[in-house]
Amino acid sequence: MADPSKTDDSERIFSELLSPSELFAARSRSRKLPVRGQKDFYPSGCTQQKQRLQNSLDEHWELVSEERVERLGNLVRGIWNPSDQIVELQSPAGKFWQTMGFSADGKQCLQPEEALYLMECGNLQVFHRDLPLSIQEGYETFLSSSQLSLQQYQVFGHLKRLGYVVSRFHASSVPSLYERQLNLPPSRDRGANQLKRKRSPSPEATATVASSPRPSEKQEDSTNPSSAQDKATNHSQPSAAQQPIPESHRPPADDDVTGRSWWSDGLVPPEQQQDGGPSPGGPNSRWDFLSIQFPDLGARDTPGPLAPPDPALLPGAMAVGVCSVSSWLRRLNTWREKQPGGNQRRRREEEEERARRRTGPDREVQGCRSWAEYRRIMERRRKGSRRSDRRPAHLWEKDVTPLHDPRQGTSTAELLEKISVVKPSRWGDKSCSVEAVGTWQISFDVHQPAVNTEFRKSSPGMPYSRMCVCSFDGPVPALGELQQVSQQSGHVPVTMAVVDHGDISFYTFKHFLLPCDLPQ
Amino acid sequence: MTEAAFLAPRRRATVYEAYEAPFPVPRSDAEAMRCRESVYRADLVNQQVLVRDPAHIELLYGQGYFGKGILSRARPDYSLSDRWQEFEGRQIPVISKARYEQLLSWRRDYLLSKGMDEEAVNQILVRLSEPIEPATESEEAGLAQSEDSSQKKRKRSSSIDEQRRKYCPYQDRPHTDPAPRTGSSPVDDSSPMADSSPVADSSPVTDSVLDSAPGTDPAPEYVLVEGDSDEEDGGSGGSEVNQGGVRRLPFSTTEVLQLTLEEAFFLVYALGCLSVHHNQKPLSISELWGRFRGVQPGFESSYAAYHYYRSRAWVPKPGAKYGAHFMLYRKGPPFYHASYSVVVEQVRSSGVSLRPFTWRSLAALSRITANVSKELMMCYIIYPADLSEAELTSPLCLHRLTVQEVVIKRWISSRERAELDDI
Questions:
Q1: What single-letter DSSP state applies at residue A2?
Q2: Rounded to an integer, what distance in angstroms lies between the CA atom of residue B91 and that of residue B205?
Q3: Is B403 helix (H, G, I), strand (E, B) or coil?
Q4: Which of A279, A94, A252 lies closest to A193 in space, CA to CA?
């Protein structure tokens, strides 16, 4: 902070303290930022343009070379410790302590990048060998180590100025797979478990006695009341087997079709009230709904009889056989009885319409009057097609044959299944991991800006992203390096910060599995 | 690293087509019995795979959006004119005199660029634009006359007829076929600038590129030119086209469907519904694989990616417009905008990269992709370490490859901050 009024020819003493007039001048400096005008896209060579350019460059230079004025009392003192590469604070830290810095041996300390950032902000003064460091010296001293490079500092500064909370990355802070598996379920669930275990036997015993040939409902998906035929067949949680929840929320209207009435309201309500509470909310966290299979009994090709449930899920020594669904299916899609009177003709026409639609767009088939005719038509066609359409020898008689024969009609889903020869690999799968060339290190954890001071340094939580800094002139990470970096980071997404002489671009590389797009 | 979120594809504002089927193969036994032929035919000509039969073209593009018409933007629906008229049992287009003269001038420029002198070019054009008499005999005679002379060529003209009949099996369909575009005259060469005027041009200035499959000497196409005066038939016809009448077209305008190598191999290998012929000889799958690998380096990887996307029921189309290997469409280009721009990269022990990236080129590609509202996806084809070169010569090596997809997006630091502030 030069004091121009004291220039002496023999000794130039630069005093850091400002005289009152200088202070007033500094305080009343205009705070306006230069206005950004319209960009010129190419040099037109005229003097006006050159003049404008020169003006803006001068303004830029003035701004950058502006001296910063601070109250001495506001500056926090710190001492640089070259052996540990940290800055120890001598005076209490200010507001920045909420998001930056750490404590060691009872003393408040800062990382070198944080210290340099605060120096540039004008909050901190770092002393080394009893002399304060200038910004230039700060850059030289703090960024010379192998731990922190200029590019990393540029990324740090950029993100901090935008408000993010940036801290150094420690590989040990990533929880391992085992630690994540050790997470215990919340206690509310355990209470519900015990409750249910006590209550389970009675409704099951009475209900299943009443209807032995039918499969008894073991686990009820209380949040998915579906059609009457569903039942949860496989259930991944072994703990759930101990407390089968009585089916409570089934709409009774479906009884008419299936004729089941053994789970009428008389048995269930007392349990319903008590178990209905925890069941919607509680089991959600334990039940793996994606693995519950519901047999689709409305499908075109009739499925076989329903398999008996797992004996582990049945109470006592009960044996349940296979359930045949044919009787139920016969009752589906039944037409209403013909009404006598004038509606008869209309009904006949409607039925013919339906029959025509059922036989499909084939004109010949629509025209035939009996099954014998239909069979003759099909036979004729089959013979005809077989005569004219032989499999091309050059495709089928050689060593490599096609994956599919177009002479057979196959549904799209089956066809896609057949031709799925090139398989996708799962991210994190050890067998498909590729070796990496070179090592890429994660530098920083980035948390979202600390609004409402809800960020706690002691337990910051999962970072929003992790930064991996690289140079614009360097190589682009290939698959091996991406896998390596994502392994280091665990579940947190990694962003590549590419530094090009101060300009920073961020790119995210996220793995992806394209969903299969089955047409109807 | 977290998984990228899947954004639903954007539907196009107006859809002019109906969706037929994902693949040109029957989906049920009833359909199988209804369709006449299950295997379509393509020809390998000069390292290009072309489908010429109009019925096959229709089916291949309509069900699955395979290929591109060489005279059209995407769907092979090029037709010289909107009006058609019957001539000797087939439909020929009707164009104006000015248009015909324009076509002749293109032909003239082409011949001049080949190095022929003005005189010869003028002669050829005069012969070309002679009006054609309706009677079939005179047509044949006219054909023979307009040729340079000798008997061997006359024999050839009759053999042309036979070739014509042999090569285009659909010729007896012009009445039944309602669509005018397929009613045009018999099939022609692969390239539109092929010699349609008989032999005279072909012998001195045959371009090796224009050499089509032997036995298919180009047969002329006819067009009805409407003159300024009332329609008069034939006439003496000087060097100028000042009267209407049926004339020969200077070059072929038959639409041909061109398939990329990946599409062709997919149809042959995965669906078994295409057979590729080279010099009239059908090629087996291994031969085809070998040829394609020779033509296009990195074919194994790009085909593996193509096969993978097709087996997930997405439609990959060539992505050269956006600097990528493929553009992925859901259902097909007419229905949705492309969702992803795919760049294929191979991960092999030999370490050769199909498309080495620098940050600069990646930034450029990312910027282009963002500007067209698509997502940039890298498709890594992982080769197992023990896959030998010998195994690669057979397409069965595909069973051992795996695919990893990575979506690259640019993160803008300030935007996230601004969005958070709004909350």
A1: -
A2: 31
A3: strand
A4: A279
Q: Do A406 and B380 touch (CB under 8 A)?
A: no
Residues listed for chain A: 520
B278 catalytic? Reply is no
Please, what is the angle between helix A112-121 and helix A150-162, to 10°?
60
Cα separation of the two ends of chain A:
76
**Closest approach of B298 to chain A, Cα-based (Å):** 16
Strands across the sheet containing B274-278: B68-69, B257-259, B48-51, B40-45, B274-278, B281-282
- Give percent above pLDDT 90 in chain A: 17
Interhelix angle for B136-146 vs B151-167, to 10°?
130
Handedness of CA B289, B290, B294, B295 (dihedral sign): negative
Which residue carries 């200029």 as its tokens? A150
Q: A14 versus A234: which is more confidently predicted?
A: A14
φ/ψ of B55, rounded to 5, equals -65, -40
Which residues, including other chains, have CB under 8 Å from residue A11's CB and lie 6 or more apart? Answer: none
| Vertex B276: Cα angle to B274 and B279 (nearest 5) | 155
Is A165 within 8 Å of A455 (Cβ atoms)?
yes
Low-confidence ranges of chain B (pLDDT < 50): 137-217, 229-241, 420-423
SS3 B69: strand
Max distance between CA atoms of chain B, in angstroms, equals 89
Neighbours of A223 (CB within 10 A): 13
pLDDT reported for residue B149: 41
Instruction: Calculate the alpha carbon distances from B395 to A499, A507, B44, B272, B304 in Å.
Output: 43, 36, 19, 14, 10
Which amino acid is present at B145?
A: Q
Q: Reduced to 3 states, what is the DSSP secondary structure of residue B157?
A: helix
> Which residue in B362, B394, B410 is closest to A506 by CB distance?
B410
Contact (Cβ atoms closer than 8 angstroms) between residue B359 and residue B322: no
Pick from B240, B246, B164, B239: nearest CA to B198: B164
For residue A380, what is the nearest residue in chain B, using CA coordinates? B33
C-alpha distance from B366 to closest chain A C-alpha (Å): 9
Distance of CA A257 to the CA centre of its chain: 43
Active site residue B329: yes
Say if residue A470's pLDDT is above 80. yes
Q: Which chain A residues contact residue B413 at CB under 8 A?
A: 158-159, 162, 164, 504, 506
Which residue in A518, A421, A425, A409 sits closest to B269, CA to CA? A421
In this structure, the number of other CB atoms found within 10 A of the CB of residue B104 comes to: 19
Q: Alpha-carbon distance A222 to A139, whole Å?
A: 63
SS3 assignment, position A356: helix
| pLDDT for the residue A154 | 95
User: Active-site residue B68, yes or no?
Assistant: no
Helix spans in A77-213 (H): 112-121, 135-142, 150-162, 177-181, 187-199, 201-210
Expressed in percent and rounded to 5, the helix, strand and coil fractions of chain A are 40, 10, 50
Give the C-alpha separation, B219 to B188, whole Å: 6
Q: How many CB atoms lie within 10 A of CB A295?
A: 17
Sole residue written with tokens 């038509």: A377
Nearest CA-CA partner of A81 in A152, A146, A129:
A129
- Name every chain B residue with its beta carbon within 8 A of the beta carbon of A448: 420
Q: Which DSSP string do the residues of B2-15 spell out, in sequence order?
A: PBPPPPPPPBPS--
Minimal CA–CA distance to B336: which of B312, B317, B364? B317
Instruction: Select from B253, B230, B226 the least CA-distant residue to B241.
Output: B226
Dihedrals φ, ψ of A145, to 5°?
Answer: -80, 165
For residue A255, what pLDDT band results from cuts at 50, 70 and 90?
Answer: very low
Which residue do the tokens 């990616």 mark?
B305
For B123, the token pair is 């002669």
- Across the range A218-243, mean pLDDT stands at 39
Q: What does the pLDDT average to over A156-181?
A: 83
